[in-house]
Design brief:
The complex is a heterodimer. In chain A, 43% of the residues lie in helices and 18% in strands. By secondary structure, chain A is α+β, with helices and mostly antiparallel strands. By secondary structure, chain B is mainly beta. The chains are: A alpha+beta, B mainly beta.
Chain lengths: 573, 251
């Protein structure tokens, strides 16, 4: 099984690596997509700023053209010399401004404001962002107006009524000598939905303009979540230059209804900056790819032979499977079959032991264990036979009990004894109380010397001894643990009765036994007292070794028409 | 009884004569602020998408600092300062700016703001949150300020970054507002030694809304120069106040 285990380890490792790779592989792709998304937003943000700058140039040019209109110069020159702006002046200037707006080719301003040299509004004209009724108030003080009155052209971003206006200012200069400043022109373009859509048209993104914490206008109906204001709050608190907002900004995810969007915010400059004006560009968030979604994205093409290495994968699979099956067959199936076959042979009785040399590893251990048990059973059988021979004499009539008519020795069952102390090693539970009811049975084994049994050594684990030839006494007769215990507890015996008394007792038993045999018509030739006594002593010794036994009483009786001897242990108390 | 009335008449006559003598002793101080050469360029503030461009037709104009200046006479030791008249100074708010960027009043006077524009600014006094009611000033509203201490009142509009006005409250001294050429006149100046000082609140030198990040109150204060000390007598005192380049100010 060693190589099978190695193979299993290799396959498991390969599977783990494959799963890890499968789980990890979408992540770099996901990162690439997120980075791509960020780049897309950064580009969109930068492009918005570029387009706003470009639009500002156009605005300034329009304002400059507006300021060069002779009519505009004239009305402002006149207003600048007046102590107050009257309604007639304002009305005339308004018509003039409206017609000038109408004359702008292309993108016309949404409003125009004429400011005289003192910073007073001569008139307001246009369709949005102004109140056309108002005039005479002072616009000097606004940054753009101050600079226009000082002779500068510039742009700005204003917030009026929650709406953003791209404005431009130009000084109005009377060029007839003496060249003098007569006022300024302010024109404005609303940041409208159309403007937002035009900004985003080439970018494929969406833009929303915000001011005072509210969306001003968006290129789509999508309304971003509150995260956009949170992100702007972080940006507004930073001291970084506005120009860096796009490049240094980090896209964030926000929701709009069920849509998940990735957005990037950038502050807007100019006067509107103080009204917390900013814009957010956003795109739909790229789907997050886990393993499942990656698999969902697999198309049929991806599984074609041209795109997927089916042949190497198939070969690898077949090789892995083949090697695994081969190793299982070699290291598991075949040894088990071999052991099963040997077991069948053993069961049929055609074999005595399992051939251990044919089995290796754990199966070899199984075979050895089985053999050990077989050998043990054999030893126990021989020991029982030997005991019978010792009790009854050798079966060949050389003075044994059986041959001499000593047909049966019964050992009366003693009462249950307490548990034995644990032994160092044992193959079985402690022997039950001895009850030898050795009825005459055919015996084939010859006489064996009743040699004392040496302590039983634990059988070798690696190799059990070979079978003992029938009839041949083992060189070292195996002993059971009971034997060891009996031998070790001889010191517990109670003092034996006096030799004369015991001898007399044995004589009486011998006499009773001879008499009973004679009564049963059994032959008594060959049954001598010394042999009889020796057997009694041995049985006595054996029984005295049992715990609690203080003596042994023998009695003779008739069993199945034959004389029999019974040994009964006498317990203490 | 008649004798008492006669003594009372005599007392009143003496007091009137004493007052007449005192007025006759007062002089006047006239002078002109001489601005440093070169003028002041308008600082570029609140740039939007493009930098500002000078027009090609005429040279650009600088900032006129005179509307942002006030000349103050501070009395020397022993000079008795006449009590300020109970006056109300009107300060007009004309849309996106005040009629004068720097208003001046003596302590005890009332400053009345008159909103003649179309906007409704939310004015607050920087550092003096209780000076204005916390509400917008609608067109034609006339809120009144009653300063309780001398010094500068820096007024800003919380709803715009540009609207700002400064009011100088003079607690000990006389003031005069220079005209467009820098000339100023103090009449009825009690005789004695007086120090001439010029208070200046520079316009448009920084973002004007200190409530916003990055904006700070613009510096305003006495122009850092060696102040003239004039002895005022019965005759008219003429002087020219030369102002240093850059118009540096000190608190």
């Amino acid at each position: 099984m060693f190589w099978s285990k190695i193979w299993f380890f290799l396959i498991a490792s390969a599977a783990a690596i494959a799963i890890t790779v499968a789980l990890l592989s979408p992540r770099p792709a996901q990162r690439a997509r997120v980075e791509e998304e960020r780049q897309r937003l950064v580009v969109a943000c930068d492009v918005v700023n570029i387009q706003l700058k470009s639009a500002a140039r156009v605005q300034v040019e329009v304002a400059s053209s507006f300021a060069r209109q002779a009519g505009v110069v004239a009305v402002l020159d006149k207003a600048s010399t007046s102590d107050a702006v009257d309604a007639v002046q304002a009305k005339a200037a308004q018509e003039l401004a409206a017609s000038t707006i109408a004359g702008v080719a292309g993108n016309q301003p949404d409003f125009a404001i004429l400011v005289d040299n003192r910073g007073r509004v001569l008139t307001r004209a246009g369709s949005a962002g102004i109140d056309r009724k108002d005039y005479g108030d002072t616009m000097a003080g606004r940054l753009l107006v101050d600079e226009a009155l000082a002779g500068y052209l510039r742009d700005d971003l204003w917030q009026v009524g929650g709406r953003l206006y791209r404005v431009a200012g130009s000084p109005v200069i009377k060029r007839d000598p003496p060249v003098t400043y007569v006022g300024a022109v302010v024109i404005g373009y609303a940041v409208s939905k159309t403007f937002a859509e035009e900004l985003m048209r080439p970018l494929g993104a969406t833009i929303g303009f915000y001011t005072k914490g509210q969306m001003s206008i968006s290129s789509s109906p999508t309304v971003l979540g509150s995260e956009v204001l949170t992100e702007y709050g972080k940006l507004a608190a930073s001291q970084a230059e506005l120009d860096t907002d796009c490049k240094s900004g980090q896209p964030f995810v926000t929701v709009s209804g069920t849509q998940r969007l990735t957005a990037l915010v950038a502050r807007l400059p100019g006067e509107a900056r103080f009204d917390d004006a900013f814009f957010a560009v956003y795109v739909e968030e790229a789907p997050r790819f886990g393993l499942g979604k990656t698999i969902d994205q697999v198309r049929r093409d991806d599984l074609s032979f041209g795109n997927f290495p089916w042949i190497p994968v198939g070969i690898g699979f077949v090789v892995a499977l083949g090697v695994g099956l081969a190793l299982m067959a070699l290291e598991h199936d075949r040894p088990v079959r071999r052991l099963a076959a040997d077991a069948v042979v053993l069961a049929k009785g055609t074999g005595e032991r399992l051939p251990e040399e044919r089995h290796h590893g754990r199966l070899g251990s199984v075979a050895r264990s089985v053999n050990i048990h077989i050998d043990k059973l054999g030893r126990e059988a021989r020991a029982a036979r030997r005991d019978l021979d010792q009790l009854l004499g050798p079966a060949d009539g050389s003075g044994g009990f059986a041959a001499s008519g000593f047909s049966q020795v019964d050992l009366a069952p003693p009462p249950p004894r307490p548990a034995l102390p644990p032994a160092e090693f044992r193959f079985r539970d402690p022997m039950p109380p001895p009850e030898l009811d050795l009825a005459p049975t055919p015996r084939s084994s010859g006489a064996r010397p009743a040699a004392p049994m040496p302590p039983v050594a634990p059988p070798p684990r690696s190799k059990t001894p070979g079978p003992v030839p029938a009839g041949a006494p083992p060189a070292t007769p195996p002993r059971s643990l009971d034997d060891d215990i009996l031998a070790s507890q001889t010191g517990l015996r109670i003092p034996a009765p006096a030799a004369s008394e015991e001898e007399a007792y044995f004589h009486s038993i011998f006499a009773e036994f001879l008499e009973l045999k004679a009564r049963c018509g059994e032959p008594t030739a060959g049954l001598t007292y010394p042999k009889f006594v020796e057997k009694l002593r041995r049985n006595q010794e054996e029984l005295m070794g049992k715990p609690g036994t203080v003596g042994v009483r023998f009695s003779v009786y008739v069993k199945d028409g034959k004389a029999a001897l019974k040994a009964t242990p006498v317990k203490d108390g | 009884m008649q004798a008492r009335l006669a003594w009372a008449r005599a007392g009143l006559t003496f007091a009137a004569l004493a007052a007449a003598t005192s007025i006759a002793a007062a002089g006047s101080v006239a002078g002109k602020l001489e601005l440093p050469p070169g003028g002041l360029a308008l600082p570029a503030l609140g740039r939007a998408f493009l930098p500002r461009i000078e027009n090609p037709l005429a040279p650009v104009r600088g900032v006129d600092p005179l509307p942002s200046m006030v000349v103050v006479l501070q009395p020397g030791p022993g000079v008795e300062l006449p009590p300020p008249p109970a006056a109300t100074v009107t300060w007009e708010l004309r849309g996106d700016s005040f009629a004068r960027p720097l208003m001046v009043a003596r302590l005890g006077s009332t400053i009345e703001l008159r909103n003649s524009g179309f906007n409704a600014p939310f004015l607050v006094a920087f550092g003096q949150p209780d000076l204005f009611e916390k509400k917008p000033i609608n067109p034609s509203d006339r809120p009144q300020l009653k300063p309780t201490q001398g010094g500068l009142i820096d007024i800003i509009d919380q709803s715009t970054p540009y609207l700002r006005g400064r009011a100088l409250v003079v607690d000990r001294g006389l003031f005069a507002i220079p005209d467009g050429t820098g000339k100023f006149v103090f009449d009825d100046v009690p005789a004695g030694s007086w120090t001439v000082r010029v208070f200046y609140a520079p316009p448009n030198t920084a973002m004007r809304n200190p409530g916003r990040p990055g904006a700070t109150p613009t510096p305003a204060g006495w122009i850092d120069r060696t102040d003239e000390v004039v002895a005022v007598g019965a005759k008219r005192t003429e002087l020219t106040v030369k102002l240093p380049a850059g118009l540096p100010v000190k608190p």
